[in-house]
Structures are given as C-alpha cells and as structure tokens.
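Sequence only, no structure available. Ideas?
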Amino acid sequence: MPDLPAPDSLPTVAAAFPEFSAECLERLGRLTALVRDWNARVNLVSRKDVEHLEVHHLLHSLLAIRHWQPAAGADVADLGTGGGFPGLPLAVVYPQCRFTLVDSIGKKGRTVRSIAAALGLENVRVEICRAEQLRGRFDYVFGRAVTALPRFLGWAAPLLRAKGGGETPNGVLYFKGTRWRDELAGTG
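Reply:
I predicted one. Tokens follow.
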C-alpha cells in the first residue's frame, strides 16, 4: 500500500465541533488529504474548489450532525457521492451506522472505495449503480448537489424503509445551495 499523505490540519472544523476527539479530527484530516491526493488523478471535486475542501466540502457535510442523531445500526445512503461527501465524513463521525455510498460513475466509486479502505472505514460500502437498484433498504438518504431538488426527492424516496431508527425520523437530507426554494416552488 502506498504511503498515506499526512492529515490536513482542520482549524475550522475543530472550532465548529469542539466535541470531536483528536482521533476523529485526525481521521477527518486524513480524509481531506486523501481526497486532495486522489483529485489530482480523478476529478472528485472541482479542481478550482480543492483548496477549500475543509469549508466547502467537509464542514458543509458535517453540519448534518446538528440536526440528525441516528440510532446505532442505522442504514444510510449517500446518493451521487462523487468524492465521498457527505458520506465519508459522516461515516467517520458515526462508526455505529452503516453507510452505502452510491455513484453511477465507476472511477469515482472505485476511488471512494479506496479512500474508505485507506481510512479503515469498515462501516462504508460503495455501490457503483443507479439509485433505482437499491429500493427500500435505507433509514436515511443523503445527497449533496446531485441534481435539482424535486428530481432528487423522486430518486431518494423509494430507497427509504417504512420506519427509521433514532431520534430523527427516517427521511431524506439534501444539501443544496441558495436556489433550493426556487426548485421546490417548481414542484407545484
């Protein structure tokens, strides 16, 4: 196995989440370093945005934990995982949950699988397939800037089980930019 890059320092994440252990921060720093390293070969995140991994990708993904407390053993899908966000950071923070990171693009899926293995994330599985193939398997479905919100909801809803576990009822959490209201208004 090749040498792993040194973990990135994450001052913004450390300040936003003082409850994170040093081990958790080290693993998250290793995650961003691996994404940065792989991104030179496989386009996981925008090349213009790679210098902002901590804030634009990692911190953005971690904000879900402010509103989401899954039960141990919860099954979580990350649709259109791309570079592994939000699934990989959430898998670091919630090792008691099972994460399935889904992408239809083979090279991205294989790369994310390699990153998860390098981090020792035994709670992560990567599926290179279309969402329709995973119906009724998950307590929660996450996505981040995959497509228009109404389309994502149409893909995600069939993947949910009837009832989720934990304090938060099962459902969909979609990370979206500033135009989400316009997209949702278009659903009629």
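The chain has one domain: 11-185.
Hope that gets you unstuck.
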